[in-house]
Structure formats: C-alpha cells, structure tokens
C-alpha cells in the first residue's frame, strides 16, 4: 500500500471548484437552455444546482480524490432535478431511480476500476433509501460524451430497459445486487494505481 491519501466525498457547493476538467463550469444537465459547457445563465450554474439539490435533501454526486486532487467524479439526481432531460428525445428515466448524468475518470486512470468504484459508492449510500435503482443513457463509443459509454455501464451491471439507436435507457436495480462484502474505502485503498505526478486534464469518458 502506498502513502497516497485516497477518499470518496459527497459533492457539496464547496467542492464544485475542485471538480476535474470542465466539470466545474458545465451546466449542460442543470439547465434546459444551456448550450456548450460554460454557457450558463445566471442562477443556473453548477454550484447553484448543487445548492438547490442539497436544500431538498438530495446528494447530487461524488468525487474521488487522491492527495486532495479530484481524478474521478459522478453526478446523479432524480430525473425531475435534471432539466436537460425535458428537452431530449431519449427514453424518459423512471421516477424511482437516480439518474446518472455524468461520470468522468481522468484519462491516466481509466481502465483501473475507479468508475465502477464510484458507482458502488453511490449504491452503498442509496441502497436503503427511497430510490430503487440507478438509471442512465448509454452512449455509443463512436460518439463519446456524457453520461458515458454503453459498454462501461453494462460492465457495471446495468441492463438496457428501453432501446434507442443513439442512447438506450439503462438501469441497475438495487434489490438485484448482492451487498458489498467489503467497504468502498477499503477497496479504494487496495486499488493498484500508478504514481501521479500531475493534475487531471479535461476529458469526457469514463472507464
């Protein structure tokens, strides 16, 4: 075990500035009218959205940090809290599930299980809550972008519940999952990772 400090944190307003890449400035999912990342209207930025979620008792995401730097991030909320979904022609998410709108892993660390670990952390914290599962739209690897690749979500245990050529709706039911026999923090600490000598760079895919 190396001496790096690894931890998964619940997203709060104070942590928005530490999100990786362009995530801290992106409000694509938080507004029904925003265009490219960063084109946010007053009151519709990421920090504003996080604050509104927390005021309603909704935890909207998690960050995975190594030595104080965020290298992975997942964003989730009930579909009613994701305005962008109202204008999409994709299959509509269920009301009994948290919708994953984005999952990001630094390119240097993809393929090492960090994305799966973030999802496991969300499942662990929500398993006995009111929501019955997680849902998201899988994106083709030929057109990378959020929420994330279909193949990645399938590898995490999601299944397609509503077909769509561009973005099928995928779901993971909590009741169908076996409880983790080991804590997420313990799994994170045992995960073999390379030496990190730089800060993460912008990207759009999870692995």
Notes on the structure:
This protein is an alpha+beta fold and 207 residues long. The protein is 17% helix and 23% strand. The protein has four helices and eight strands; from the N terminus they run βαβββαββαββα. β2 and β3 (69-78) form a beta hairpin. It is globular, with a radius of gyration of 16 Å.
Keywords:
207 residues, alpha+beta, Aminopeptidase, eight-stranded mixed beta sheet, 4 helices, globular, disordered C terminus
Q: Report the C-alpha radius of gyration, rounded.
A: 16 Å
The 3D shape can be described as globular
Question: Helix proportion of residues, in percent?
Answer: 10-25%
The fold-level CATH name is Aminopeptidase
Spell out the blueprint of helices and strands.
Elements: E1 6-10, H1 46-55, E2 61-66, E3 69-78, E4 97-105, H2 114-126, E5 133-139, E6 148-149, H3 150-155, E7 159-162, E8 169-173, H4 184-190
Parallel strand pairs: 4-5, 5-6
Antiparallel strand pairs: 1-2, 2-3, 3-4, 5-8, 7-8
Give a brief description.
By secondary structure, the protein is of the alpha+beta class.
């Amino acid at each position: 075990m190396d001496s790096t400090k690894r931890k998964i944190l619940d997203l709060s307003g104070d942590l928005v500035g530490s999100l990786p890449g362009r995530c801290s400035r992106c409000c694509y999912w938080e507004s029904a009218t925003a265009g490219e990342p960063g084109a946010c209207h007053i009151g519709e930025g990421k920090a504003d959205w996080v604050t509104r979620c927390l005021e309603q008792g909704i935890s909207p995401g998690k960050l995975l940090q190594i030595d104080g730097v965020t290298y992975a991030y997942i964003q989730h909320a009930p579909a009613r809290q994701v305005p962008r979904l109202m204008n999409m022609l994709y299959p509509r998410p269920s009301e009994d599930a948290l919708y994953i709108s984005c999952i990001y892993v630094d390119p240097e660390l993809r393929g090492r299980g960090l994305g799966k670990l973030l999802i496991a952390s969300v499942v662990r914290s929500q398993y006995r809550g009111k929501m019955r599962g997680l849902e998201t739209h899988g994106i083709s690897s030929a057109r990378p972008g959020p929420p994330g690749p279909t193949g990645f979500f399938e590898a995490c245990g999601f299944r397609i519940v509503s077909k769509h050529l561009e973005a099928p709706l995928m779901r993971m039911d909590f009741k169908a999952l076996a409880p983790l026999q080991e804590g997420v923090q313990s799994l994170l600490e045992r995960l073999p990772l390379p030496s990190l000598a730089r800060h993460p760079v912008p990207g759009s895919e999870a692995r």
